[in-house]
Write a structure and sequence with these properties.
The structure holds two protein chains of two kinds. Chain A is α+β, with helices and mostly antiparallel strands. Chain A has one domain: Alpha-Beta Complex (Aldehyde Oxidoreductase, domain 3), CATH 3.90.1170. Chain A is built from three helices and eleven strands; from the N terminus they run βββαβββαβββαββ. A six-stranded mixed sheet of chain A has the order 1-2-3-7-9-4, sandwiched between helices. In chain A, helix 2 packs antiparallel against helix 3. Chain A is globular and about 50 Å long. By secondary structure, chain B is of the alpha+beta class. Chain B has a domain of 37 residues. Chain B has a four-stranded mixed sheet with strand order 2-1-4-3, with helices on one face. The chains are: A alpha+beta, B alpha+beta. Chains A and B meet through strand 6, helix 2, helix 3 and strand 10 of A and loops of B.
């Protein structure tokens, strides 16, 4: 049975549409919820990608990364992305897109992209598409905190209104994406 | 009319609590918000604020990114979103 439920409480936003788990959260990930959302007897493949805070960027030693999001729009874009992978890759895909906000230390998980599908090919294609799109379309920002005490907001992809011809960072299915 | 704009990322530090109130003409377009906002922030943070930050930012509602030529003459809060880099 399809669920259409939105909860907003204690700094946690999440949106469940059908079987999807689409969330921006200040709380640590609950991987049990991820696998629960992906569970489907018709799906023989589950694929979970996690983004992790790295200890170096552009030659600078990183201590932590502070993530900020415009949560209402972010969850709307998550919903659009889930619809897109079903239309372009596989109608039966189950989708998890979960991103943390707040200050995360090196080694902490920042992002979870989860897919389930009858066969592995759809999940692999959808996972790559979702993480590349997340980086250029979702209103999330990160401020790196370095071991020397300095900190800086990282540059990224400019957002543009739909059909405006903007956002050159959009990434097509099957293309080689950035690292 | 007065428009309330939430600022994020590198723009946030130029406001109190991440919110700017801006007096603009009725039926002002999204693009027409940029100059008064840049003028205001460069006046308050001379030498520190860079206008490019606003030029590269997109204005959005809670539901979608707005086009440059759309009017902003509705009640509510808008958001100014600098280039994104999640993940």
């Amino acid at each position: 049975m399809a669920r259409h439920t939105r909860f907003v409480a204690a700094g946690v936003w999440w949106l469940e549409v059908g079987s999807d788990l689409l969330q921006v959260s200040a709380e640590p990930f609950d991987m049990g919820r991820v696998y629960q959302a992906l569970s489907d007897p018709e799906c023989g493949a589950q694929l979970v990608f996690t983004g992790v805070v790295r200890n170096e960027n552009d030659g600078r030693k990183v201590d932590a990364v502070h993530y900020e999001a415009f949560a209402p729009l972010a969850e709307t874009v998550f919903k659009e992305l889930a619809q897109e992978v079903r239309e372009k890759i596989g109608a039966t895909l189950r989708v998890v897109i979960w991103h943390r906000v707040g200050t995360l230390k090196v080694g902490e998980l920042s992002t979870v992209i989860g897919l389930a599908s009858p066969h592995r090919a759809e999940s692999y294609a959808a996972s790559r598409y979702l993480i590349e799109q997340l980086k250029v379309r979702v209103p999330i920002w990160k401020e790196e905190h370095y071991l020397d005490g300095e900190k800086t907001w990282l540059d990224g992809a400019e957002l543009a209104a739909p059909n405006s011809g903007g956002n050159p960072g959009r990434w097509a299915i099957g293309a080689d994406g950035p690292e | 009319m007065v428009i309330k704009i939430r600022l994020f990322g590198a723009l946030k530090k130029f406001t109190e609590a991440g919110v700017a109130l801006l007096e603009v003409p009725e039926m002002c377009s999204v693009r027409e918000l940029h100059e008064p906002l840049k003028h205001r922030l460069s006046g308050e943070f001379p030498g520190e604020f860079k206008g490019e930050l606003v030029d590269r930012a997109a204005l959005a509602s809670e539901a979608r990114v707005l086009g440059n030529h759309e009017p902003v003459g509705w009640p509510g809060t808008l958001a100014l979103l600098p280039p994104v880099c999640g993940g």
